[in-house]
Design brief:
- The chain is an alpha/beta fold and about 325 residues long.
- The protein has two domains: about 130 residues, Rossmann fold; about 150 residues, Rossmann fold, CATH 3.40.50.2000.
- Helix content is about 30%, strand content about 15%.
- It has twelve helices and eleven strands.
- The strands form two sheets. The chain has a six-stranded parallel sheet, sandwiched between helices. Strands 3-2-1-4-5 form a five-stranded parallel sheet, sandwiched between helices.
- Strand 2, helix 3 and strand 3 form a beta-alpha-beta unit.
- It is globular.
- The N terminus is likely disordered.
């Protein structure tokens, strides 16, 4: 029998604590791009319990933001909206749709009957008088604009995470991450191997990482680049270990995926390979330590093969970008 769910928290006098429910049942990069909005909600509702509906595996990330009190496990295949939420007790006092522009995500939250719902306007949910949705807008800017429309102060630059408490398993290494959420965003393994080989010839350590379903991809890269087994973190390593590796890295090279956002959150230098989605939508903030490679045009993010824009990026271009990056900043004592 499953353990009973905890009752909603109460104040010292027994009064139920008001709750804010935030829906963002997406991946690691999505959660990190939503950190500025989550922190704006934390500041805007300091006396509320802030509950984040997101995949259970992201609980350590949610905790690291310093904005979330509790994670409510919620997920669906791809970027779909969960069918239900395992919400208990009275309706949330405020529900916030950080998942999409609706209407499925709107209706999922409306079913809980919150007195207030923050969401973008959509013609199929005319009772929500939110701001308009703009397709060509950066993800961090989008959600901060939503909250500003409801009177909250939101800063898209408020995205850094605290430094991990544990040591890096490979301090000073260049981290290569060949995987991504879709084949269209996966740069060829042969080019990652060429970058890894050149970096090792320069005397740098190279570490390869991969998600829970990317072991074969990682194994191909390791074999082609002839990397030692000690320089591999595949199979979806625990967040604490991955975070420590990224925070202590010399640089991170990847496609437009979660680890790129994690590196940005730790102020680690990055070279991010974009295609088919442009960096104007998901790229790092403007800073010399972050270089986004993009040749365009925009393509199909659901394609079954690497996007042509991504294939225009060469291994030499990536190596040149790495040479132009400033050294990592020393951690603050």
């Amino acid at each position: 029998m499953p353990a009973p769910r905890p009752a909603p928290p109460s104040d010292a006098d027994g009064t139920p604590r008001p709750r804010v429910l935030v829906l963002r049942a997406l991946g690691l990069g999505d959660l990190l791009a939503g950190v500025p909005a989550l922190r704006a909600l934390r500041r805007g509702f300091p006396g509320h319990e802030l509950v984040l509906a997101a995949p259970a595996g992201l609980a350590p990330v949610a905790e690291a933001t310093g904005a979330v009190d509790r994670l409510l496990p919620a997920s669906a295949p791809g970027r779909a909206v969960p069918r239900t939420l395992d919400w208990t007790g009275p309706p949330p006092d405020v529900a916030v749709d950080l998942h999409g522009n609706g209407p499925p995500s709107h209706r999922l939250l409306q079913a809980l009957r919150p007195p207030r719902l923050f969401a973008f306007a959509h013609p199929e949910t005319p009772d929500i008088e939110g701001p308009p949705w703009y397709r060509d807008e950066h993800e961090r800017d989008r959600w901060c604009r939503l909250l500003r429309a409801y009177g909250l102060d939101a800063d898209p630059a408020d995205l850094l995470l605290p430094r991990p408490s544990g040591p890096s398993p490979a301090p000073g290494a260049v981290v290569l991450h060949p995987g991504a959420g879709a084949p269209a965003r996966c740069w060829p393994i042969e080019r990652y191997a060429a970058v890894a080989t050149a970096l090792r010839e320069y005397g740098l350590r190279v570490v390869v990482t991969g998600g829970a379903h990317e072991s074969d991809l990682v194994a191909r890269l390791v074999k082609q680049a002839r990397l030692p087994d000690t320089d591999v973190l595949s199979g979806g390593p625990p967040f604490e270990r991955l975070s420590a590796l990224v925070a202590g890295a010399r640089a991170v090279v990847s496609g437009d995926t979660g680890i790129a956002h994690l590196a940005v959150a730790h102020a680690t230098p990055t070279v991010t390979l974009f295609g088919p989605v442009p960096p104007a939508h998901w790229g790092p903030p403007a800073h010399p330590r972050h270089l986004a490679l993009w040749h365009g045009p925009e393509g199909d993010p659901h394609a079954r093969r690497p996007d042509p824009a991504l294939l225009r990026i060469t291994a030499d271009e990536v190596l040149d970008a790495l040479h132009r990056l400033p050294p990592p900043e020393e951690p603050t004592p």
